[in-house]
Write a structure and sequence with these properties.
The chain is mainly α. It is built from 13 helices and no strands. The chain has one domain. Helix 5 packs across helix 13 and helix 6 packs across helix 9.
């Protein structure tokens, strides 16, 4: 599958999901978390397990000692995020939202202006606030407490509809240049505005962000097949599952929905920081940089 085809498939899925959501009753947030967290873990998180592809090809890490140092640095960056959440959850949430917007801004394919990338990344964060600020507040409160959540929602909510309008205008203007990209922009925005936040985020994260990253990694590494990438990701994913089990055990005593929200989103934040350190360098220098490295270099 090409990246262009993946974007069109995602767009069709987004609109289908919105149509289905009009028919089915909306589940309570706790039920949504219980249902969607495993999906995010199984389909969304694995794209980060492919960081070792970029490290081997971009940084030329080969020796056991170099891999040991990389692993320690990666885990230390993740641990630092969790310490920030523990000490200052409000600061953690603000930083998490900012880095998420920066990271998601890399999704649009091709020569995209910095303004449009920024608008896209910020839109992923702001669009759910247009119609679902109460649900977003519940999630933010589970991560940072009610006072911080209220302050953050108040600071951001005013910009939700202007952001939606700006994305719509950008999509219209960009139709002649790249119709598929405009379809993606409208589909992502409609999904995140209209669908319940957890459902919209899950579909976006798994079927747009993660799927696109996997395809780019396939092309970057010349791996040839997705099954080859799955073998590469297997050990990092096993370590991630173990970490989730430990985090769940350590969070005992809290309400179930709070535990799931904290394990899921604090865990995502902890993994996003080292993931960005690895991947953003490659993105900013061009995804094609690694194609000169043969498949055998990551076998």
């Amino acid at each position: 599958m090409s990246i262009r085809s993946q974007g069109l498939v995602f767009s069709a899925l987004a609109w289908l999901s919105l149509a289905v959501s009009l028919i089915l009753p909306t589940l309570e947030v706790q039920a949504q978390l219980a249902l969607l967290a495993p999906i995010i873990l199984l389909l969304g998180v694995p794209h980060g397990a492919l960081d070792i592809v970029y490290v081997r090809q971009a940084a030329r890490i080969r020796s056991a000692s170099a891999w040991t140092l990389f692993t320690i640095a990666y885990l230390a960056a993740a641990a630092a995020v969790m310490v920030v959440w523990w000490i200052a959850p409000g600061v953690f949430l603000v930083v998490f939202l900012v880095i998420s917007a920066l990271h998601f801004s890399g999704d649009p394919q091709g020569a995209v202006s910095p303004f449009l990338r920024t608008l896209y990344g910020v839109g992923i964060i702001l669009c759910p606030l247009a119609l679902h600020s109460a649900e977003v507040y519940q999630l933010f409160a589970a991560l940072a407490g009610e006072a911080a959540a209220k302050s953050i929602i108040t600071a951001m909510q005013w910009a939700a509809w202007p952001c939606v309008a700006a994305i719509g205008l950008a999509a219209i203007i960009g139709v002649k240049e790249d119709l598929a990209r405009s379809i993606e922009l409208v589909s992502v925005t409609a999904l995140l505005v209209c669908a319940p936040p957890l459902i919209g985020f899950t579909i976006f994260f798994c079927c747009m962000h993660s799927a696109r990253h996997v395809l780019r990694t396939r092309d970057y590494s010349d791996a040839g097949t997705l099954s080859h990438l799955a073998r590469i990701a297997s050990w990092p994913m096993l370590a991630t599952f173990i970490g989730v089990v430990i985090a769940w055990w350590l969070s005992g005593g809290k309400p179930v929905d709070t535990r799931i929200a904290q394990v899921l989103f604090v865990g995502l934040a902890a993994l996003t920081v080292p993931h960005m350190i690895v991947v953003e360098r490659v993105r900013l220098t061009g995804w094609a940089m690694g194609r000169s490295t043969s498949k055998s270099s990551i076998a």
